[in-house]
Amino acid sequence: MAEQQPKEISGLQLWQWRQAAIAAAIAADVSPTEVDWLLQEIAGLDRLALRLESFKDWAQIQLQLPLAELDLLWQKRLKERLPVQYIAGVTPWRNFKITVSPAVLIPRPETELLIDIAVAAIAKSKNELGLQQGHWADLGTGSGAIAIGLADALPEATIHAVDYSSAAVAIAQINAQNAKLSDRIKFYQGYWWEPLESFKGRLSGMVSNPPYIPSSTLSILQPEVVNHEPHLALDGGDDGLDCIRYLVETSPTYLKSGGVWLVEMMAGQADAVQEMLQNQGSYCDIEIYTDLAGIERFALAQRL
Ligand code: GLN
Prior knowledge:
CATH architecture of the largest domain: 3-Layer(aba) Sandwich
Structural class: alpha/beta
Order of helices and strands: EHHHEHHEEHEHEHEEHHEHEE
Catalytic activity: L-glutaminyl-[peptide chain release factor] + S-adenosyl-L-methionine = N(5)-methyl-L-glutaminyl-[peptide chain release factor] + S-adenosyl-L-homocysteine + H(+)
Domain Methyltransferase small: 129-213
CATH class of the largest domain: Alpha Beta
Pfam families: MTS
Number of strands: 11
Bound molecules: glutamine
Number of helices: 11
Distance between the termini: 67 Å
Low-confidence stretches: none
Radius of gyration: 22 Å
Helix content: 25-40%
Binding site for substrate: 209-212
CATH topology of the largest domain: Rossmann fold
Mean pLDDT: 97
EC number: 2.1.1.297
Shape: elongated
């Protein structure tokens, strides 16, 4: 019988591993701060213990996985550019700890703003529309981050979260449960609007971070992204706009009058997306919002 590897190690052992991991990170041009973030997640150490190295004297530290396994994954981080979030199995996003695996895109900090933009759009809308109490869609939910952010910010709304990947839906469901929001988020495996046929004309809003990278650009993304994150969540076709174009065309059938249309996009796509929305003819109040880096990142419109 294979001996089970211990998950408890001495503080000294972990201190030694940390020293080596930091040195290897620097040599591999990976930020050494990732080591401490990972140890917070895997070893439950806090920042002060890491900073003061006080854990070095502790008799025992409980790891979530055997040190040998952690070390193997860290080698993968450095040699294969495996994102550190996939090793930890989590990423911080807004006020949540979102579970992630290679089946889902790692939610990005800039995407956090989508929720604030949706909330601000509701605040500006006419009260009698009742947008904050209505049904909202998160199309291409992935880890479920946007659905969870919306459910949290809109305590009276119901969120319908759709993804084509059943593995993604399974992770999104775990995240909704962890956030204690699963009673107001319904999950569906399916193609964009397809599972939401019965909501035609009734949606208060549609929020999405769709794939928007042009296919030809994928290969020049960081190896962390192109070699490890799901291409289904990234590849937006020839000009990167296939999915956004689809969402512009199809959403008017599903949104009620005054309903919110809100998507994330890539740097350089704002003009094209604005034009699509205008030409479609069913939208008004089209606005482009920048992210915190000043990049035109979000397009907002209202169903006429
Ligand atoms: N923001 C992601 C990236 O920079 C792309 C996400 C997407 O295509 N929606 O890789």
